[in-house]
Amino acid sequence: MFYRQSIVLFGFVVPFAICAAVVGGGMFLKSKTSATYLEKQALFKNAENDRVGALGIEAQISKKRPHMERWIAQVEKETANSITSHLKQIADSLPSKEFQQTAVEYPTSRTGFASVSAQDSSQVRLAFRGTFRSVQLALAELESRMPQLQLQELKIDPSGSSTSSLNFQITYTAWEK
Amino acid sequence: MVAYQHPAGLNPLQRFRQAGAVLRSTSRADNAAWYRSALELDFQLHLRADGNRVDSRLFDRRSGQWTPGPQLSEAHASDLTLIPAFAAEVIRVAQAAKADSIGIVLHLADELATSELKPELDNPGALNELRVMIESDPKSILDDSSVSASESSWRLIPYPAAGSEAIATTVCLSRSWAAFLDELRKTGEEKNFPVVTRAVSAPLVCLLALPELKRDELVRPLIAVLPYPRFTLLAFFNEHGDLRLLRTLQHRGQRRPTNLRHAASTTAAALELADPEVYLLSTGDITDPQMAADLQLVFPAASIREIDWAGTTYAAVATGMAPEPQIAIGLATAPETPLASSHTFGVLRSDGWAVQDFLPVAQEVAELYPARSEMKLLRAARFARLGFAALAVLALAFSSLQILDLVRKPEFTFNSDGAQSQKQRLTFLASERTRVDHWDNLLEDRSKAWVTMELLSTLFPEKSGFLVKTFNHSIRPEALPGQAKAGFVREWKITGLARDEALEQLNILNTRDGISAVFNDVATSTGNASFKTDLPSRSLVVNVRTLENNGYRPGPVEEAASLDDSTYPFSFDLTITQRFESSDQLAVILAKAP
Amino acid sequence: MKPTLFLPGLTLVTGFLLSAGPAFAQMAEGLDTADLAPAAPAAAAAAAPTEKKPEAAPATGAKVIEASRFAGEELPAYVRQLTARFSIRKRVTDPFGRFQDPNFVIPEPKISPKGPAQRSYKPEPPMPFSEVVAGISINTVIPGKQQFLIGNRSFSTNDTFSVRLPNGKQLGVKVVSVNSQRIRFRNVTTNETADLTLNMLPAGMQKGVGKINAPGFEAVDSNAPVEIQPTVPLSNN
Lengths: 177, 594, 237
What we know:
The complex is a heterotrimer.
Chain A: H1 3-62, H2 65-76, H3 79-93, E1 99-105, H4 113-116, E2 121-130, H5 132-145, E3 149-158, E4 166-175
Antiparallel strand pairs in A: 1-2, 2-4, 3-4
Chain B: H1 12-25, E1 43-49, E2 54-60, E3 65-68, H2 75-78, H3 83-96, E4 102-108, E5 113-115, H4 127-136, E6 152-158, E7 168-174, H5 178-190, E8 195-201, H6 202-207, H7 210-213, E9 222-227, E10 231-237, E11 243-250, H8 260-270, E12 277-280, H9 289-296, E13 304-306, H10 324-329, H11 343-350, H12 363-368, H13 372-407, H14 416-442, H15 449-459, E14 466-478, E15 485-498, H16 500-509, H17 512-526, E16 538-548, E17 570-580, E18 588-589
Chain C: H1 6-20, H2 33-36, H3 42-47, H4 75-83, H5 129-134, E1 140-142, E2 147-150, E3 153-156, E4 160-164, E5 170-178, E6 182-187, E7 193-197
Antiparallel strand pairs in C: 1-2, 2-3, 4-5, 5-6, 6-7
């Protein structure tokens, strides 16, 4: 029985081992490739998601983006200057009997929206005398030109001096950059 | 021919390769004859060497025919050069007879000797052990220490009789024919044709003819006298048919041993065999008539029986053929005689004591070749290798297909740089969106003076009997801790005077539905969403107090000037509170814009 | 007076005036929707049919008003869009009673020729005679004697008495005829006749018809028809 062991060894065990090694090697390679593929797939998926997400965000802000520059430019200008220049233009376009600015102040206290928000802002207090419609028009013009103005307070009283005028007192919080 | 090396001297790989070589170059895996006994094979050549000449007979078991075989002489034993031709002839004959192998049985009738066992070996149960040992190490068993294992070959013959002193005896034959048989086998290996040899002692085989020859009941002891050209064998059986003793008498050049009758009678007396029958089994073609006469001197003539082979089953199929071959081939079946069923003959026949091979293949030579089971294993291993190879190839192909499939997918070629840039773009856009959304929120039209004035104008239409005296509107934020957006509250406080026709309107305004309707109107006409009331994040509360105007003086209606306070019977006090929760779209983001 | 942004400012103002000119007519009257038309954006034109009901449904077909921060370059057009829908434009006075035209002269309050202390009284329309008559409360009527009682005073036909009206005036009334159902009076001054219908029965009673039927009362006459109690109440005759 000299040959039995070696026959079993070389006839069965070794071929089996080689076969197993080959199969194992093949499976290993395949699993490695599979892992690499999964990795790449995940990356690809992420990149796709990012791309789609980017497109989505782009769609969301594309409407507002053109306005951003203008908004930033507006809030960067000093509030007092802007108000003064705008009011001047507005006043020039309206008859003085109907619309007159009587006072302008820039209080330093932070009230209203400024008191809760961390955003920079300044307070504006304006006083007018004029007819209802002229003042409404002027305010519409001013507030449309400066959307950063947030009305805090509005007081209207009839003026004693004339039968057509009202006294207006307005306080705004103006957002600043 | 490849010279195979003994596997003990090879490393496992070499052994395997040698086994593979054996598998390839020989028919050992297919032809079972390589591993069988000569007497089992279908085609047999029986040679009988009795010292004068060598008989050669072919026996085909398939047809039961005896035919003369290739001729040879005693010179073949010593002159090895003659053997290859003979062997080739033998194989040719066998192949011509369409046999796949040939069993050569050499009946040695030219010598025989007995020697005793060591006296201490007296355990009948150890017989099988001793049978094996006498082949490998005869010196340990034989009493005579001056023996040479290389020159002679011993085999055990048991004495199964109860009460016999010795358990067995040994028969000794010389190895003179060993080379002959070796050469025959070698030729067979060269030609890849199984040549299986067996050297048996002809007298021992001949003894087994007795059950066939003596068909009646054995009542007397039996002495078998087997004369051969160079010796005579005496076998003493008791009345039960048990072998008591084997004794050889050499002829020493004579035709018969000189002390035959003396030895026979004294041994019979010593064995206490009273009135034995004497069977004279002459197997040669030349019988000595004097032998019978010699025996008559000591045994009554009636007890002596000279066997004439012609009348028996072992009748010569051909002239001049000795009976031993025929006896040898007929050993498979026992004759139905009382003697055959005796213990001795049963044992001698069935245990193969009589046909022991005196000149077997040397152990080392036999070990050169793998055993039958190993050959089968090897064959299986060959298939297994194929199978594993196929499996491996299959698996490899399958794996590579799968890999190929994966590699070909588009995601595989995807470049990770692209991912990086996409992510960056996304982050950038997200931050931009945060910024845009933040400013979008800050600049919402949540509190516009002109819209509030529009509200005032809508609340108190012309010629509706109202005269507003004061108007106060304020907005204050409400920030809860831990929230990103702050809701706010808008409050309108309006005081004024009212006439009778205005009271109904005031009552309507005092209801939530009424004031909501006015607010929604303002929202629609101004396009300002902060005046919409049907949102869950907003609430609208109104309170109207109507009082009498102390300055009222009743007078004719048509004379009532609209600015004259005294023409208004009532004064009112209207408070509207609109609350925006922090979940509302118009709520203010509290953080600083990025 | 003009600031440094001369041209844009001029454009603005010109645009402003041109488009919204009519809206700022010196005369507050004549603020018709017709004047608003051509230069004003579509919003105004669409707002025209809804002028009567400013609180009503939104202007169909008009451009949706965006938030002010999106007005951007089209600011003047945007503001025009807003101002076109002001309800003050159609009003002479604002809620405070102020006139929108500062030059508007408040008409002098009418001074009646009689002076401020005097009050002009309109003569009250005379009370219809039938009402007068209906207001006379009769205690008793004695149709046989053609007499009736008011309080403890008795009157009979062809008597004349005076009735004092709630406003103090007195009226002469003559009795024309008296019977059980009505009393006829004549206004002495105007010769108008009016009847006073008598309903002497207290409320809830009605004139009986036919025989008196007490519940449980059985007629003696064996041929009398059997009275039934209708389940539906009889109408008041």
